[in-house]
Amino acid sequence: MRKKLSSHKLSVAHEKACKIISQSKKNTIEMFSSKMQINQHETTYRIFRTVYHIAKMNRPFSDLKELILLQVENGLDMGRILQSDHACADIVYHISNEMRTKLVKYILHNDNKVGFMIDESTTMSKKYALSICLRVNIPEINIVNSIYFDLIELANTEASSIANSFICALHDFGFDNNFLLRNWVSFACDGASNMLGKKADVAQLLLNQFPNLILWHCSNHRLELAVNDIVRDILPICHMKSFFDKLYSVYSASPKNKKELETVAMALSVKLNSIGRILGTIWVSSSARSVMAVWNNYAALYQHFHESSLDLRRNGGDRAQYAGLKNKLCDINFILNMGLMLDALIELEHLSKKLQDRETSLPDAHWLITLKYHIFQSMIF
């Protein structure tokens, strides 16, 4: 028996068994599994950081594949999963949801004052949606931040549906009624009838639940409505708007006309500016740029209208149209009205951009509006 034991001790099988036992004491499988998990976590971190960059830079989700290929070429291990545009969308949703949850917990813990701004719109797929923006005071940095909070789908655009969906969204993220009654300070929206109507509008429905709420109509939207009322009431401005709409249609719908205008401008050493519509559903700052473009392009426009009105290759209707546009440009009253409108729109453009500034407070907005009022009063004399 001792001889057999001695022979077994010296055998290859015994040596292999001893080696296996010693290897098992080192926890090789557990260590390898842990190392694999660490590598997977590192690749996931890289994917998440790449997706965050895409979202931060407002890039399309399809950029993820190209950015991953670039990092692989630079020698990084990016794994084999979470590399499609659908995965990118899911990761963006996950990151934003975690950031929003963390923000809400911070607000609830510190009992911060909050305000909300909402705007109803329609998506490309013709679905009703509600955009929610949060304004919160953060004492640590002593500023009021405006944060895009959520985008929810609406069943319809009735005031009751919007109000219920809005309140339900706040409850889903942890804002209960007790907190809102204590800390919800303001509610801002545009002047649509379902938002700020006279009877059963969203603002009134919210005010019934939260009586201390301060309702505010968007200052920039009020400015646009005021300008729109003036356009309807003053006949020369309506004629000016019709002229600009005609200019826009002449050059936006015909590449040939646009090319001819560019040729004339080059001959006159005039730098062309893009001509758009004015005083419509766009901000007044865009209207100011369009009027400024016509003012700067005046010589080129006149020359092009003159040449087109005498061009026998065009039919009689087109020649008459260009002759009418040329006569309109030559009218001294038209030039004076356009110059007056340009001066007014430049002032309104400055006011509009200041009202859009996130750092503009209500006292600042009041001071700016008062200043512009005195400027317009001085223009009368």
Our count of helices gives 16
Radius of gyration: 33 Å
Low-confidence stretches: none
SSE-based structural type: alpha/beta
Shape: elongated
Kindly report the spatial arrangement of strands forming the biggest sheet. 3-2-1-4-5
Organism: Hydra vulgaris (Hydra)
Protein name: E3 SUMO-protein ligase KIAA1586-like
Overall description:
By secondary structure, this protein is of the alpha/beta class. 65% of the residues lie in helices and 11% in strands. The chain is built from 16 helices and 5 strands. It has a 5-stranded mixed sheet with strand order 3-2-1-4-5.
Structure summarized in a few sentences:
The protein is α/β, with parallel strands linked by helices.
Output the keywords.
five-stranded mixed sheet; 16 helices; 5 strands; 11% strand; 381 residues; alpha/beta; E3 SUMO-protein ligase KIAA1586-like
What's the topology here?
Elements (H helix, E strand, L loop, with lengths): L1 H8 L2 H14 L2 H29 L6 H11 L11 H26 L3 E9 L5 E11 L4 E11 L5 H14 L4 H7 E6 L12 H8 L4 E4 L1 H15 L1 H18 L2 H13 L16 H13 L1 H12 L6 H15 L1 H25 L5 H19 L1
Parallel strand pairs: 1-4, 4-5
Antiparallel strand pairs: 1-2, 2-3
Helix pairs in contact: 3-4, 3-5, 6-8, 9-10, 11-13, 12-15, 13-14, 15-16
